[in-house]
Structure formats: C-alpha cells, structure tokens
Write a structure and sequence with these properties.
Structural class: alpha/beta
Number of strands: 10
Number of helices: 21
Strand order of the largest sheet: 1-2-10-9-8-7-6-3-4-5
Strand content: 5-15%
CATH superfamily of the largest domain: N-(1-d-carboxylethyl)-l-norvaline Dehydrogenase, domain 2
CATH architecture of the largest domain: Orthogonal Bundle
Oligomer: single chain
Largest sheet: 10 strands, mixed
CATH class of the largest domain: Mainly Alpha
C-alpha cells in the first residue's frame, strides 16, 4: 500500500510488517485530492451497504465539489427510502442506475452479488472512458473468471470492503462525529490501475466511509476470505455451534433458558466481549475449568478445520459462487424459508429480559468449541497465504466487534435471516454441516483427554501477536447495535 496523499504506517505482524492507513475525520479535507479527478460518485444499489456507503460518502464530502448520487433500477422499491435520506431526482442525486453509472467518475457497484453477475455487462457498457469501477466484494471477479471474462480494459478497478454490516458502517460513522476514528475497518484492493491513481482513490473511499484503519489485500483474496468466513465462524459455524450446544445442554438436564444462556448467550455476549477486549487466550483464562476447555478445544479443532478446508476449496474453484448465481432465478419465485423455527429461538426474549439481573458466564465447553473453530479458520487462511491483517479481520474482529454484538441484541437466527443473500445461502448450506460435526464428532469426544500438541499450538499460535497489533488500532467505542 502506497499513497501520494495520505501518510500510512507499518503494522508489525508475525514474520514482518504490513502497511495500514489509520483513518479519522481530520483526513476528510484530503479526500478531493486523493480522488484524483473524481467529481461524481455513483453508488449503484440501496441495500444495507448502498444505503450506508452513499450516506457516509455524501457526508464526508460535504462542502467539496464531489457529488454523490444513487442509481436504482426502474421501479425499485428502495426509491422512497433513498428519497427519505436526502437523495432526490430534483437535485440530480437519485436516478436510473444506468444513467447514474454513465455520468459518474467512480461507479460503486453495490447491488446483490447474483444481480451483479447478471447485469454487469449493461453497467460496463455505459461507463465513461477511464471511469473507476468500485466494488465492496470480490464476488464479481470470481464470477468473471469462472465464465472466461474480465473487467473492461482502460478502467481502474478498486475495492473497499468494510468488515461489518451496512447498518454498522453507518452507525459507527455517526459515532465518529464525537469520537474521532469510530467506524468499521475496511480492506482495499487495487485490481487494475491504468492511470496510477487507483490506490489513492481506494484509500479516499475507505477514509470517507469512516474506517478506523484500512489494510491492503487483493480482490481474489478478499472474496475467498469473505465468502469462506461467512460460511465459517462469522455465520454458518456459529449458527451450527449454538444449535448443537443448546441440544446438548438440554440432554445434560438444563432447562431451555439456561441451555440458551450457556450456548448462544455465552457466544454472543461474554465470549465475544472477552476476545474483543483481551484476545483469544483470555477466553481460556476466564473459564472455571480450563481442563474441560482444552478437551472441548481439542475435540473440535480437527472437525472444524476439515469443513473449512472443504469450503475454501469450493469457493476457490467457483462452486460456491455458482450456487449463488443459480439460486437467483429459483428464489425469484420461491423465496427462502426462515431458519429461526427451531425450539431454542423461542427462549431468546426470556434470556435477554434477564440481562442486568443474571450475568451470563463463559461455559468451558462453549468457549473451547467456539475458539477452536475460530482458530481453525485462522490457520486455514494462514496456510492458504492470506495476509495477517486480513486473517484477523475476517476471522476475529468482524465477528466479535460487528456480527456477534448484533446477534447479541437480537439472536443468531435473526441475523442469518436478515443478512445478504450470498451469506444467507452459505449459512443454510454449511451451518448444518458444522452442526452435524459438532454433534457427531466433537461432543462425543469430550470425555477423551485433550491432545497436548493441539493445546500448545493454540497457546503459541502467531495469531495472538497479529491480533494484539490490530487491537491497538481498535476504536475506543463499542459497536452501536
């Protein structure tokens, strides 16, 4: 990562250093220069990311000559909401998606993955010569490669990928009005740079979104880690884990509310908070029975790693991406059913009502199994060559500082039923696989002594060093949910 406008800094990670840009509102005056000739930004789409990013960009660039417009498909049901947030046809900040794309110098494509796969050629066809193509997910690159195509020549192609939900991107940006630096971390990727300014444009976009710090990756690495992570510890694995643990605790004699607290409440509450504030080893330190934690960790790591390796292979070869594209036509007539119907979710309200009078603790089995799954994902990404900034953000920080707090405020099933279609499809496919592995392999092995090599590998894992370095850049406020 290099910049002619911003001052970057080194981040010490295992085996060397990476370069990051620390954000903050004091950098907003540099945005026009860093955008290098961009005078109109078109945000195509008004889903959670489109709604958040368009508003953040507009607010960060207020008082400059750079205008932000939203482009929507004809008849879009989102038009009224966009107008309610100040984007209107009358002032030229709301319009047809192709018209907005044709008039913009930076075109940020934030429609759903499957829709982008279906309609990218229409959008590419209307671009100005030399207009920059912006993405917040590398899915389109995977689709283009799978179909033997590429981005149009002569256009810079960049990505800025916030490591959290759109709602979080906006809420933490608003917190940043009083706490400089509050926001959601983001990665950037420069895929094509014909004019030599793509990197600065990507950094400007990330700063304008309110990212506390920005790290560099590649578009290919981003979509692999992002899609795998959604199916792994961010959504699929955590859903499978809490369902498996809830059932196990009921079999052990717990009442339903207690079983929910020992499983879902422990993961989304004290475990997430402990990792966010003190790291992964702190979860082990916080339990009353470290020997049971170690047995749960050792029983879970191998089965979880096997599934994560399988997911990674299917993302890398395009299988998982094709399944998302195939689902688009099917779901047009048969919407996805919701997954929050299993018995445990009926007890969430009772558990949330007890907060403040009944403090949840970290169950050693829950803690050991969750941390084992998280470390298995970390190790899989490290073996596949991902940078440490990407590993800790995609496998740990996004989980404990964005998604799990949101689940804590609502529940895991609610999160799954209200996330992006790509993530929802992946969770529905892989969550049951994780659940079966936990129930059929990990939990029956709890009685066996912990493999000391696995425990030592956890305690000595280089991820602790990488996470501590990233944590030093953490905003001073917790996520607003």
């Amino acid at each position: 990562m290099r910049s002619d406008v911003f001052t970057t800094e080194p981040l010490a990670v295992p085996g060397g250093t990476e370069t990051v840009l620390r954000g903050g509102r004091h950098l907003f005056p540099l945005l026009p220069a860093a955008l290098h000739g961009v005078r109109r930004i078109g945000v195509i789409g008004w889903g959670p990311q489109g709604r958040a990013q368009a508003r953040n960009l507009r607010d960060s660039l207020a008082g400059t000559e750079v205008r932000v417009a939203v482009g929507l498909r004809p008849g879009s049901a989102s038009a009224d909401d966009a107008r309610a947030h100040g984007f209107t046809e009358a002032d030229g900040t709301l319009g047809d998606w192709l018209a907005v794309a044709a008039e913009s110098d930076l075109v940020i494509l934030l429609i759903a993955d499957a829709a982008l796969a279906a309609h990218h050629e229409e959008l590419f066809a209307v671009l100005k010569p030399g207009a920059t193509i912006g993405l917040s997910h590398g899915f389109l690159l995977g689709h283009l490669r799978a179909t033997g195509r590429d981005f149009p020549a002569g256009h810079p192609v960049i990505a800025v990928c916030p490591k959290g939900m759109g709602d979080s991107v906006r809420r933490l940006y608003e917190q940043g009005a009083t706490v400089n630096g509050a926001g959601i971390n983001a990665s950037i990727a420069v895929h094509a740079d014909p004019d030599g300014h793509a990197g600065d444009r990507a950094l400007a976009w990330s700063v304008a979104l309110g990212s506390p710090y920005t790290f560099a990756t590649t578009l290919e690495s981003e979509y692999r880690s992002d899609v795998v992570g959604e199916r792994g510890i961010l959504l699929g694995a955590v859903h499978g884990l809490v369902e498996a643990l809830y059932r196990q605790f009921l079999l052990d004699g717990a009442d339903p509310v207690t079983a929910y607290e020992r499983s879902c409440e422990a993961v989304t509450g004290p475990i997430a908070h402990t990792i966010s504030q003190a790291g992964l080893r702190a979860v082990r330190d916080a339990v009353a029975d470290t020997e049971l934690f170690d047995r749960a960790y050792a029983a879970t790591y191998g089965p979880a790693r096997e599934i994560l390796a399988e997911i990674y292979d299917e993302v890398a070869d395009g299988t998982e991406l094709r399944s998302v594209v195939l689902a688009d036509a099917r779901l047009a007539t048969r919407p996805m059913s919701r997954i929050g119907g299993s018995p445990m979710w009926a007890h969430g309200d009772a558990v949330r009502a007890r907060r403040g009078t009944h403090e949840a603790v970290i169950d050693p089995v829950t803690g050991g199994m969750f941390v084992a799954t998280m470390v298995a994902q970390v190790d899989e990404f490290a073996e596949r060559g991902h940078a440490w900034s990407e590993i800790v953000n995609e496998s740990i920080i996004e989980a404990v500082d964005s998604l799990l707090p949101y689940m804590h405020a609502r529940d895991v099933a609610y999160m799954v039923d209200n996330c992006s279609r790509t993530a929802r499809l992946g969770t529905r496919r892989w969550g049951p696989r994780f659940q079966a592995a936990y129930e059929q392999i990990a939990l029956p092995a709890l009685a066996a002594p912990a493999d000391p090599e696995l425990v030592h590998a956890f305690l000595d894992n280089p991820v602790h060093e990488a996470l501590a370095a990233a944590a030093a850049l953490r905003p001073s406020v917790d996520i607003a949910v």
